[in-house]
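tool_call predict_complex ligand=heme C
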Amino acid sequence: MVLFAAAVARGQNPPGESWNPVVGPPAGAKYAGEKVCAACHIQESDSYMKTPMAQAAALPADASILHKYSRLTFQSGPYHYLISTQDGKSIYSVTDGKKTISEPILWAFGMPLSGQTYMLWHDGAYYQSRVSYFTDVNGLGITLGIPLTPPRTLEEAFGDRQDESIGRLCISCHTTGADVGGVFQPRNSVPGVSCEACHGPGAQHVAAIQQRKPAAASAAILNPAKLPPYELDDFCGSCHRTWSQVVQMQVMDVRNVRFQPYRLQISACWSPSDSRISCLACHDPHQTVVRSTAVYDSKCLACHQEKGGPKLAGHPGPACPVSAHDCVTCHMPRYELPGGHIKFFDHNIRVVRAGAPYPP
Ligand code: HEC
Ligand code: HEC
Ligand code: HEC
Ligand code: HEC
Ligand code: HEC
Ligand code: HEC
Ligand code: HEC
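tool_result ok
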């Protein structure tokens, strides 16, 4: 209960004190662009540009899937879908045999590693496409998380209409620089989570470096490593969803497995002040996720006693009576989202009993 109280208190603060990646900077803030950052921070740039986060959105001209498959089709009940790509332009259309809605794709969201959903504009609003591309089936399928009831109209078959604030949020999480000073200008955005989505607009940082003013350069850019552990979780949570956002959204079933900050914070391992259990303890955001369970053993054993080993000071976690390695395979099981296609590792680290229901 203490943990919950701490999380509630924390939820009232904005994630990060100086910079919220989703709300956007005040008016007048200037972005430098990731190419400028890359000129000096070669190591971070080289590895970061290959990550799914960097590729969280693409314009149709740069979306490799749309070019690899210039015609994608799908049938769902009476509705026939076609995505056709020619000369860097992709048209998404749905027909019931009598009427057709066709609109150009604005962005492809999500890296083709798992799934890709299309953002569209129709009749004065943003729409999330009702069908998405899924890598496991090498083709289209029904988008995850949209209403499962059969569409009543061709518009509903076309996609999920987003009210203004939600459409804006989709774009603010998947692209960089769309929202400056409270003014939403999605055409100015850079597709994907680029350097300045996390570090904040960097033109002032670059200017200060060039003027050889290191203190001013440091003050003009956010280094999230300087945040206390619980604020760091909320910082990542501004896109990956914080504990308080999930409670507010009332997503209290297996669908919340994709919200790692929430899952981690309901685990018995979590502590608001221990950096050994913050996102950065296990992930370098400039690198693709390390897909190997063995690598994480040392992260667990930074806190847990070793099975059969001597009692170590500063290790508040008990030893495992079962195994001394591959901790993640048993204590962070994978769950599939309803609708299939995508699996997530549960960040609610715990003892998993056979047949026990998913702890929401
Ligand atoms: C002209 C070279 C140059 C450019 C361009 C540049 N930086 Fe830096 N940056 C530096 C130097 C030098 C430091 C200080 C390095 C150190 O202290 O180790 C630094 C420090 C940083 C830090 C750590 C700050 C701290 O106080 O902990 C971050 C984060 C950072 N830069 C991000 C960026 C981003 C994002 C961009 C692009 C908007 C960028 N930089 C562009 C040279 C540059
Ligand atoms: C501006 C929004 C945003 C912020 C802030 C953010 N993320 Fe992400 N992250 C995303 C999106 C969007 C994806 C999905 C990319 C995809 O699959 O298309 C993602 C994917 C990831 C992945 C999976 C990548 C892979 O290799 O499979 C990891 C790990 C991750 N983020 C960690 C972090 C951490 C750690 C932080 C905090 C330091 C953070 N993220 C902050 C938006 C964000
Ligand atoms: C609060 C920030 C946020 C908002 C709003 C948001 N996303 Fe994401 N999105 C993420 C993060 C973080 C990930 C990576 C983790 C995950 O897959 O849940 C992601 C992953 C994805 C993926 C990769 C495949 C998948 O389903 O995991 C797709 C596609 C996607 N988002 C589409 C959308 C669309 C379309 C919208 C708007 C209707 C949207 N997102 C709104 C943050 C956001
Ligand atoms: C998803 C959020 C995120 C994105 C995107 C991101 N960074 Fe970072 N960056 C971080 C975090 C978190 C740290 C602190 C890492 C640590 O100390 O473990 C950091 C640290 C840094 C530092 C300081 C390194 C040091 O040794 O002190 C530099 C420089 C930097 N990032 C540059 C970049 C550049 C350049 C890009 C784009 C190519 C980028 N970052 C993209 C989250 C991000
Ligand atoms: C104790 C270690 C640990 C901590 C702390 C941790 N993660 Fe993870 N994370 C993992 C492991 C293990 C995987 C799966 C790696 C693999 O594929 O083998 C993972 C995978 C992911 C993925 C990819 C989706 C998936 O399920 O494969 C995202 C996104 C992610 N973590 C985000 C976060 C965020 C955000 C935080 C902070 C709230 C965080 N993680 C904290 C261990 C950790
Ligand atoms: C920050 C330190 C820390 C880290 C890192 C950590 N744990 Fe823990 N963990 C604890 C503490 C402390 C407890 C005991 C909590 C209690 O008894 O209330 C615990 C409890 C557990 C439990 C029992 C939970 C339950 O529901 O009874 C398991 C299983 C566990 N940890 C596995 C892991 C695994 C696997 C990892 C790595 C992926 C890990 N822990 C990383 C501190 C940590
Ligand atoms: C083969 C599956 C498996 C692996 C691998 C595994 N565990 Fe466990 N662990 C279990 C099971 C099952 C239990 C519950 C045992 C019981 O209560 O009888 C458990 C219990 C625990 C507990 C609770 C102990 C207590 O006294 O309450 C902790 C902590 C823990 N494991 C940590 C770890 C760590 C750390 C690792 C990696 C070094 C690890 N486990 C590897 C299956 C595993």
